[in-house]
Amino acid sequence: MDKILSIESYKWYNDTMSENASRADNQQERLKLEGWISGFVDGEGCFTISIIRNNYGWQVFPEFVVSQGEKSKSALKKIEKFFKCGYINLNTRRDNHHEQMLKYCVRSIHDLSQKIIPFFERNKLKTQKKNDFKIFCKVIKIMIARKHKSEKGLERIRSLLQKMNRRKYNQALKSSETIRQTQSLV
Fold first, then answer.
1. For the segment 163-172, what is each residue's pLDDT rounded down to a tens digit?
2. 83 CB contacts (<8 Å, ≥6 apart)?
3. CATH number of the domain within which 153 lies
């Protein structure tokens, strides 16, 4: 990220830590909270990128999500309060669980680049998710540089998505609908 973004994220981090540390007994509490969030996200979080075709063309939607059952809403509230961004909403799903699922989402490029990414750069993920996070960061950088608006930039993002979240996008990106829509753009 550039220096202006880094300075803003540094200020946010210091403000957040000052507020949390003043309520905490000591610095150990702050470190425990950060470690808890990082570990919780490693197990229950997701860094995802969607590419959607709409009336305006192709749009790239990055999203940081943490999901939990309704009984664990307080965990999501704690994360939302820590980051001071994003929102919690009902995650519509159709399965056999006996409680509603909630998700904490951050979609703002500004919040992702200034709060979420710097936090996880300092508090490293330990699972496969760390690789998804690295790709997520690359896509956010492409978007900040506004390169995602070009066909070349969009292709770069599509290429990165092939390696993310263990998904295979080849078939979706090569579908007849995608090819037809892409050709109509040319």
1. 887 655 444 4
2. 16, 106, 111, 115, 116, 119
3. 3.10.28.10
